[in-house]
């Protein structure tokens, strides 16, 4: 009987142990499933967190770009405003240029006419050269391929040349009627103060008379000084004192 009881107890213990083992396995399996589920959830959470961080970084980057674009656009607005103001000023200037251009053409024509009259009344030196210069100015005024500014520059340049004549000394060779005969002579111009000539053979000399508008013969005693002046003007002699007949200023 005792043995039977021991067997029953052993069997019950075995059954209980087996039941406990099964329960433990179930608990372990459940725990494992929970861990797996938790790991999966954590992975999803990490992925979502990483995605949110990435999007946040993108958001911050875009905000910085937007701020930069706002500053850039504001600067462009200022530049465009300034350019529009400059364009308005240029348009106004162009309108003024058109007005000035219409006024300057008659002015240049009057200046050329005045220059021509001055040359006609002036001491008759380099007559062909000065007449050609005025003729070119007149022809230039009819040309459409030359701007008004260039025309005005050339007119002023012609005036400047005439001004320079008044403060320079010059010698040149030309043909002149002397005693009814055309002869080759050396002309000596001293500013606009005096215009003298001496024949190539140094036999005759004369000076321009502003009153009679013709050359007056000079004594032979002046010839050496005129020849000296010619050589000085041609830079063949160093500048020196000259003794020449000078007409009194009126």
TrEMBL record:
The keyword Signal applies. It comes from the Bacteria. Residues 1-21 form the signal peptide. Keywords: Signal. This is Biopolymer transporter TonB. It comes from Pseudoalteromonas luteoviolacea DSM 6061.
């Amino acid at each position: 009987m005792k043995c039977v009881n021991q067997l029953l107890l052993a069997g019950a213990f075995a059954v209980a142990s087996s039941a406990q083992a099964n329960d433990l396995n179930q608990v372990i399996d459940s725990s494992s499933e929970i861990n797996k589920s938790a790991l999966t959830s954590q992975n999803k959470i990490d992925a979502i967190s990483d995605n949110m961080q990435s999007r946040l970084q993108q958001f911050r980057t875009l905000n910085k770009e937007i701020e930069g674009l706002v500053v850039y656009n504001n600067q462009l607005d200022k530049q465009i405003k300034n350019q529009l103001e400059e364009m308005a000023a240029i348009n106004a200037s162009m309108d003024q240029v058109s007005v000035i251009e219409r006024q300057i053409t008659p002015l240049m024509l009057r200046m050329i006419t005045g220059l021509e009259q001055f040359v006609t009344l002036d001491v008759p030196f380099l007559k062909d050269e000065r007449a050609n210069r005025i003729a070119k100015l007149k022809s230039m005024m009819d040309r459409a391929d030359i701007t008004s500014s260039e025309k005005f520059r050339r007119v002023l340049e012609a005036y400047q040349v005439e001004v320079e004549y008044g403060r320079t000394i010059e010698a040149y060779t030309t043909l002149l009627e002397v005693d009814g005969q055309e002869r080759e002579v050396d002309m000596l111009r001293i500013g606009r103060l005096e215009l003298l000539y001496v024949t190539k053979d140094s036999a005759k000399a004369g000076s321009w008379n502003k009153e009679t508008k013709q050359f007056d013969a000079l004594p032979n005693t002046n010839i050496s000084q005129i020849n000296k002046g010619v050589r000085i003007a041609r830079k063949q002699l160093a500048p020196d004192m000259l003794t020449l007949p000078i007409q009194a200023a009126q």
